[in-house]
Amino acid sequence: MEDKEKEKEKENKKGEENQNPILVETAGRVGLIRLNRPRQMNALNDALMDALGLALQAFDEDDGIGAIVVTGNDKAFAAGADIAAMRGWDYMDVFKSNYITRNWETLRSVRKPVIAAVAGYALGGGCELAMACDILIAADNAVFGLPELKLAVMPGAGGTQRLPRAISKAKAMDMCMTARNMGAAEAERSGLVSRVVAAERLMDEAMAVAQTIAGFSLPSMMAVKEAVNRAWESSLSEGILFERRQLHALFATADLKEGMNAFLERREPVFRHR
Ligand code: DAK
C-alpha cells in the first residue's frame, strides 16, 4: 500500500514537472489567472501559491490592467491546501517558514479588484482563497466548504475570520464545525457569493464583470476597494472618515474632472487612470 502511494506521488510529480501550476493571459485590461493542477483538483501547494503571488503582483504593477480574475477549471476552483505536501510537516516547519503568510498573503496586498470565478469544489484553502478575493462569482455547480476538521487541522488561511464576516457567526460555526459543504444556491442566499450563473456562462460573466470594472477610473476603483476593505476592520466613525478623505482625494484626479465633464457634455468619458 505504501509503495503504491509512493509510486503515485512520483507519477504526479513527474506529470507536474512539465506543467505550469497557473496559466496566465490577458483580455484587454483584464488579467486572467487559471489555477492549473487539474490532476490534484488544483490543490494549493507552494509552487502554485508562489506562482499565483507573482502573477498577481505583476498584474497589480501593470498599467494596462484594471481588474484580475482568478479561476480554476469546471471541476474544481481548488480542493484546498495540498494535503500530500502538508502531511510530512511538523510545527517547526510551518512556524519557521511562516506557512500561509509567506505566499498566500500576497493576495491581501493587491490593490486592483480581484474576482474569483468559482466552478466545482472550493474547499478548505480553496474556499479561503476565493473568500480573500473581492468579488466571488459562482457557477451553479460550485461547492464551498471548510472540511479541515476531517483532517484534524483547522482553517488557517483566513477561513475562521472571513467566513463569519461574510455570512453569519452561526452559519460560519456550522460550516467549520460540521465540515459540511454548501452549494451555490445556499452560498448566494447566505451572502458568501455575489452572483450565481449557469456553469457554462461562468467565464463570460466573470470576464464581463471584470471588463466593466477595468473600464472605470483605476485610482477611483482603488479608492473604493480600500474603503470597502476598511469597513471590515474599523468602527463606522473611522470608516466614514476614511471614506470621506478618499472622496476628497479623488477631486485631485484628472479622471474625476473627465467623468463629470463627459456626463454634462453627454458623451462617454475617456479615463486616463490618473
Ligand atoms: N490535496 C492534495 N490532493 C488532493 C486534494 C488536496 N486538498 N484534493 C484532491 N486531491 C487529489 C486526490 O488525492 C486525487 O489524487 P489521486 O488519488 O488521483 O492521485 C485527485 O486529487 C482527485 O481527487 P479525488 O479522487 O478525491 O476526486 P473526487 O471527485 O472523488 O473527490 C473532492 C473530490 C474534492 C471531494 C476530494 O478530493 C476531497 O475531499 N479533497 C480534499 C478536500 C479537503 O479536505 N480540503 C481541505 C484541505 S486542508 C494551515 C493553513 C491552512 C490550512 C491548513 C493549515 N496552517 C497555517 C498550519 C488549510 C488546510 C486545507 O485546505
TrEMBL record:
This is Enoyl-CoA hydratase. Keywords: Lyase. Pfam families: ECH_1. Its EC number is 4.2.1.17. Residues 1-20 are annotated as: Disordered. Residues 1-17 have a biased composition (Basic and acidic residues). It comes from the Bacteria. PROSITE patterns: ENOYL_COA_HYDRATASE (PS00166). GO terms for molecular function: enoyl-CoA hydratase activity. Belongs to the enoyl-CoA hydratase/isomerase family.
